Amino acid sequence: MEYRDAAHLRGTQAWKRARAYVLKHSRTCWICGHGGADSVDHIVPMALGGAPLDFANLAPAHMRCNSRKGKKPIVTKLKTSQNW
Questions:
Q1: Which superkingdom is the protein from (predicted)?
Q2: By C-alpha distance, which of 32, 42, 27, 19 is closest to 65?
Q3: CA-CA distance, 73 to 38, in Å (whole number)?
Q4: Is 57 exposed, middle or buried (0-12, 13-18, 19+ CB in 10 A)?
Q5: CA separation for the pair 3, 12 (Å, rounded)
Q6: Which residue range is the domain that position 23 belongs to?
Q7: Is residue 53 part of a domain?
């Protein structure tokens, strides 16, 4: 199945299962390195050709870090507050 965008993907059972799996195995944000991740990010954004449901392309992230990253690929870790 091909997904048009992340919004369409989020409504699927496949995404819900993938998200639960990723967050069950780690809650450390891959972007800032701090615990308490509450979302799952596509390491290579779907907009740039990243695989939507490939576990190698999914990583836990804080919603704030994930939103700041947006559709950009990460070259260096974002600077975020250590005082969550």
A1: Bacteria
A2: 32
A3: 20
A4: middle
A5: 10
A6: 6-69
A7: yes
